[in-house]
Amino acid sequence: MLNYAIRRLLFAVPTLLVISFLIFAILDLAPNDPTGNLPLTIPPEVREKIRLSLGLGEPFPIRYLKWLQQFFINEPLNVIEQWFGITIGDSENRLRVQSWVTRSPVVDLIVERTPQTLWVVGMSYVVGILIAIPIGVVSAYRQYSVFDQVGTFVSMVGFSVPTFFTGLVFIVIFSSTLGWLPSIYDTTHKVTDFASFWVQVKQMIMPVMVLALFNASQLSRFMRASMLDNLSQDYVRTARAKGLKEKVVLLVHVLRNSLIPVVTVIALGIPQIFGGAIITEQIFRVNGLGQLLIVGVQGADIPLVQTLTFIFAILIVFFNLLADIIYGMLDPRIRYE
């Protein structure tokens, strides 16, 4: 298992380099001018100086290599210095990936927005998994029952209806009509006591449940299909013939094997947590990574968009590897030579 993980990590290096080049090239060659939003009264020579100050006067290969140095070397050194107090090299003159709009380090902006995204989107993913797995198990075990039909109907509706519509319905019902929950997520709110904690819970309920309903609808269908496939296998009949209790057969043997394909869906969905739910964050005004990406695209902030997109690619590659490793833990038949 360890050798397999090391090989996959070594293979991931050239993969990520190719991805980084494609991301950088596509966004860098896009027809976006960082001086396009400036007033028209600014002289052309001043605009050109601004472009040169942003590093746009150098050839494309040089800019790409500098971005790689800043992302893979300078930013990790800066993190080590901030977290552990260990200074390596000249930290004062160290180049960092700068936002064209705010002129602040992009990684600092991402770190600032990440907690809000993890609180809302991450919690919704956990809640969605906790809802989807029991529903999928019971629906498969009681196939064509009333519970299965209701669960199928709710899952189809939850997966088919877009989150912006569900979010607006929640706001109309629970905020405008009943007045139970706030319609806007206050990112400046701090939890200091039980009263402030309850305010935090109330403002998280709607965005978390909107995303949890969408995630649970998809995962429950995968879970149900996987359970039905395993319930008809010979080993299930053998386990029952040996006199094992039905709960043991269902929750130990069938559930473990059924989780194998579902792990892929769950693992590949985790990077979406860090990417943020762009639409839901816009509806409830959650100041997270999704909203940061929208701001970067609207403002033609190419370094911000490049860095965020590449971080998402790294997460996808990592969680693909994690899913393969979990396969071996769930299924003893899988061996990595």
Word description of this protein:
This protein is mostly helical and 337 residues long. It has a domain at 114-330: MetI-like fold (Orthogonal Bundle). Helix content is 74%, strand content 0%. It is built from twelve helices and no strands. It has helices spanning 2-28, 44-53, 60-84, 106-141, 146-160, 163-177, 194-231, 234-241, 246-275, 278-284, 289-298, 302-330. Helix 1 packs antiparallel against helix 12 (302-330), helix 4 (106-141) runs antiparallel to helix 5 and helix 6 (163-177) runs parallel beside helix 10. The longest helix is centred in the middle third of the chain and has 38 residues, at 194-231. It is globular and about 85 Å long. It starts with a helix and ends in a 7-residue tail after the last helix. The model has no long low-confidence stretch (mean pLDDT 80).
What would a concise description of this structure say?
The protein has 337 residues and is mostly helical.
